[in-house]
Design goal:
Elements lengths: L9 H69 L5 E7 L3 H4 L3 E5 L14 E6 L9 E9 L5 E8 L1 H51 L15 H50 L5 H28 L8 E4 H18 L3 E5 L5 E4 L1 H18 L5 E8 L3 E8 L31 H11 L3 E6 L4 E8 L4
Parallel strand pairs: 7-9
Antiparallel strand pairs: 1-2, 1-5, 3-4, 4-5, 6-8, 9-10, 10-12, 11-12
Helix pairs in contact: 1-3, 4-5, 5-8, 6-7, 7-8
Amino acid sequence: MRLPVIFRTSVFQLTILYVVLFGVSVATLGWFIYRSTVGYLEDQTDEVIQAEINGLEEQFNQRGLPGLIQIIEERGAQTSDERFAYMLIDASFLAVDGSYRELAGNLRFWPAGPSVVREWIEFAVRGQTPDSPSVPVRALILPIGQSSYRILVGREIRELEQINERFVRALTLGLGLTMLLALGGGLALAYSAQRRVAALNRTTRRIIAGDLSQRVPVEGAHDEHAELALSVNAMLDQIESLMSGLRHVGDSIAHDLRGPLTRLRTRLELLSEEEAPSREQVAECLDQADRLLATFNALLRIARIETGAYRRAFEAVDLGAIATDVADLYQATADDKLVELRRRIIDNAHVFGDRELLAQALTNLLDNALKYTPAGGHIDIELRRKPDRLDLIVADSGPGVPAEARERVLQRFARLDESRSSPGSGLGLALVRAVADQHDARLTLTDNAPGLRVTLSLPANRA
């Protein structure tokens, strides 16, 4: 028979273990307090009895047996509440046939056996009337001098027994109530944890079934369960985004590569019908093939960047030197297009990253800027220093990107409708975004009025 789910939760099992450990601890502490308290009261009783016996021995040594009998009778008569018990006997025949001769005292019988001497005993004494309850007495038996006389001095311990009973009852009830409350709290915690885990399981089963829109409900304060739910929801958001991006990439690959592949196949089919194809026709086919290879290489490069394969080679690099080298590389192209390439680059701008990836990102940004900036326009390359960051800015005076399309152009194969006729695969800004994510950088697109302003903000001086 399987236990209910709540009893099989780890929280409930840990609670049971805690209840057992707590119960043992409380019981041990209670027993220590009990023994300390009751033991102290017993010691006090024994000291009083021992002091009384010492006094009687002094009387025997000073006044002899008649004086001892007299003092015992007097004290027995004075103890009307029977708090003390006395008995003096002649034990000559006690060891032989169990008989003895009572000499003095307020007890009706000798409670000990023949051989009991110098030992503590406890017994019950019935009251004056038959209906009176028995009274517990603790006593000590000692021989008197070198004779066969023995004396028993005891003291009523009714109050001590009552304290003992109440203490044990309070300890038992308190321990039981404590463990019951702890068990109830454990059940409540287990139910709460099981309910939240069940919600997480329901959500994951729906996601496994294909519904990626499901999210784990976040309940109550920001405890560990809420933090787990938030983390799982963030992971699900990322997975949904990646799956959406994967579907978009598949659609884009099918859409953007179908045309070049169709043209390449048509061209090759025509060339197969000719006896001597021209160099220009072959070069055109090779150009189409190179574009296709460039697209796939860009996709592979983005995928490799996103896996973090380059992070193992990160080191301190001078972003200013990288920007200067890339600007020098594109200066001639800008001059040919009659575009002014303006620079404002600071020195000693160090970041922690990969030189090749940062140069590739800046190259892609300049490629886009040169592609869309008309003749007579300008492109600004600027490197600014902030307290804890370095901002690499590429701004052009081209047509720009509408605000509602700026997030979309950062995705793979995303191209604006008006730029479909221009060469390109729509992977340039997607690669820049992948490089930015790997360097913990912020990539923002804003209006340059006119044109587009792209800012890559990287953490400075990271090692």
